[in-house]
C-alpha cells in the first residue's frame, strides 16, 4: 500500500491532502500563494507538528515564487514569510521549518526548495527511528506480548511527512506482531481521531475501536489499556508537552491507572528555548467549532464556545518521551535536551 503523503511539492506548487474532507473524500489542496498556505494551515487542511514543519519550509518557496511573479520588495517578502511562520502559535515546527530554510534564500529559490525536500527526508527517517525506540521501550516496560493501546488525536502519516510519530510506534508494534487493539479517542471538536486516525488504521488493517473522548479515563481505569501514547506540538526544556486538547486528561488517567503514558515526536518538536509549559502559547480557535457540527448548531443559538486547541501535560505525568535520538523519562531528567542531542540523561 502506498504511503500517505500529506505534504508534497508538485512542479510549481505546494500540494496538501485536504484533511478537512477525510474520510469521505481524498482531495488535494493546491497552494500557489501565501494566502492559500496560511488558509490551509488555519483551516487544518494540513495539521500535525511534523507536517507543519514541511509546510513552513515549502511555504517559503511559495512566497519566493509569488514574490517573483508580483515583483515584491525584500521587505514585502519578509512580511509574507512571517505570516506563514506565525500562522499557528502553539506548534513549534511551523516556525522551525521556515527558520531552517530561510537562510538559504540568498542562494536562490532552488536551494530553498532542495532544503525543504531534505526536511521531508529527515522527518520520515526520524519517524521510523523514534517508532523503533518507542516500541522497544514499551515492550520492555510492559512485558506484554500483545498490547492494548489508547491514542488521542492523529499522529500518523497524515500528521507528518511519512509513517507517523505516536501512530508510527503503534504501526511498529503491529509489524512486530505485538499489538492487540487500539482505542482511538474521537478528539472533539474536529474529530481528528474518528476521521483521520481511524482512516489510517483501517488502511493498515490494524484492529481498533473509536470511542468518545469522555470514555478514555474509564477505559484506562477498567484495565482495558496497557499504555497510552500521544504526539506533541511543542515540548519544553523541562519535558512539559503541548498536544491536542484532551491529552492531559489521558495522562492523569494513566497515572491513576498505573500504566505508561508516552509522548512521541521528532527532535524538531523539542523547544529548548521554552523553559516550561507555562511559556507555551495555547491557540484559541473559533468557538463555533465547539457549538456546531458540520455547520449545524448543537448548542443553543448564541451560545459562546470556549475552544482551546491544545493543552499542556506537565512532565511529571509523562512516563517517557521518545524522539529519533533517544528515550527520556522526564521524572529522572529535569532537562530533556537529550531528546535533541541524543545523550541520555
Supply the number of structural domains. Answer: 2
- Reading side by side through the largest sheet, how are the strands ordered? 6-5-4-7-10-15-16
Q: Provide the succession of SSEs.
A: EEEHHHHHEHEHEHEEEHEEHEEEEEH
Mean pLDDT: 96
The number of helical elements comes to 11
Largest sheet, described in full? 7 strands, mixed
CATH-level-4 superfamily name of the largest domain: Translation initiation factor eif-2b, domain 2
Q: Would you identify the regions where 5 or more consecutive residues have pLDDT less than 50?
A: none
Head-to-tail CA distance between termini: 39 Å
Enter the CATH topology name of the largest domain: Rossmann fold
For the record, the CATH class of the largest domain is Alpha Beta
Helicity level: 25-40%
Percent of residues in β-strands: 15-25%
The coarse silhouette is globular
Category by helix and strand content: alpha/beta
Determine Rg (CA atoms, Å).
19 Å
How many strand segments?
Answer: 16
What is the CATH architecture assignment of the largest domain?
3-Layer(aba) Sandwich
Amino acid at each position: 500500500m502506498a504511503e500517505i503523503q500529506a505534504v508534497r511539492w508538485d512542479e510549481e506548487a505546494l500540494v496538501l491532502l485536504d484533511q478537512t474532507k477525510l474520510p469521505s473524500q481524498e482531495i488535494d489542496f493546491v497552494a500557489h500563494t501565501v494566502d492559500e498556505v496560511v488558509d490551509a494551515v488555519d483551516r487544518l487542511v494540513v495539521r500535525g507538528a511534523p507536517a507543519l514543519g514541511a509546510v513552513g519550509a515549502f511555504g517559503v518557496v511559495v512566497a519566493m515564487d509569488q514574490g517573483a511573479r508580483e515583483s515584491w520588495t525584500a521587505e514585502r517578502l519578509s512580511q509574507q514569510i512571517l505570516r506563514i511562520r506565525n500562522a499557528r502559535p502553539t506548534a513549534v515546527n511551523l516556525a522551525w521549518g521556515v527558520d531552517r530554510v530561510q537562510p538559504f534564500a540568498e542562494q536562490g529559490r532552488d536551494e530553498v526548495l532542495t532544503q525543504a525536500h531534505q526536511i521531508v527526508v529527515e522527518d520520515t527517517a526520524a519517524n521510523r527511528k523514534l517508532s523503533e525506540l518507542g516500541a522497544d521501550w514499551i515492550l520492555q516496560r510492559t512485558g506484554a506480548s500483545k498490547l492494548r493501546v489508547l491514542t488521542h488525536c492523529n499522529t500518523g502519516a497524515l500528521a507528518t511527512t511519512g509513517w507517523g510519530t505516536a501512530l508510527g510506534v503503534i504501526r511498529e508494534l503491529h509489524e512486530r506482531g505485538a499489538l492487540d487493539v487500539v482505542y482511538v479517542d474521537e478528539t472533539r471538536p474536529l474529530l481528528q481521531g474518528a476521521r483521520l486516525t481511524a482512516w489510517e488504521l483501517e488502511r493498515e488493517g490494524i484492529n481498533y475501536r473509536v470511542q468518545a473522548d469522555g470514555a478514555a479515563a474509564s477505559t484506562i481505569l477498567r484495565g482495558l489499556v496497557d499504555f497510552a501514547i500521544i504526539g506533541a506540538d511543542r515540548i519544553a526544556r523541562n519535558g512539559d508537552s503541548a498536544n491536542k486538547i484532551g491529552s492531559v486528561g489521558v495522562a492523569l488517567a494513566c497515572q491513576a491507572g498505573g500504566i505508561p503514558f508516552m509522548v512521541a515526536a521528532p527532535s524538531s518538536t523539542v523547544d529548548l528555548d521554552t523553559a516550561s509549559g507555562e511559556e507555551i502559547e495555547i491557540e484559541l480557535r473559533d468557538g463555533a467549532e465547539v457549538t456546531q457540527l458540520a455547520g449545524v448548531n448543537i448548542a443553543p443559538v448564541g451560545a459562546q464556545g470556549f475552544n482551546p486547541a491544545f493543552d499542556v501535560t506537565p512532565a511529571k505525568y509523562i512516563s517517557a518521551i521518545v524522539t529519533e535520538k533517544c528515550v527520556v523519562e522526564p521524572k529522572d531528567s529535569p532537562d530533556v535536551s537529550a531528546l535533541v542531542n541524543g545523550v541520555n540523561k
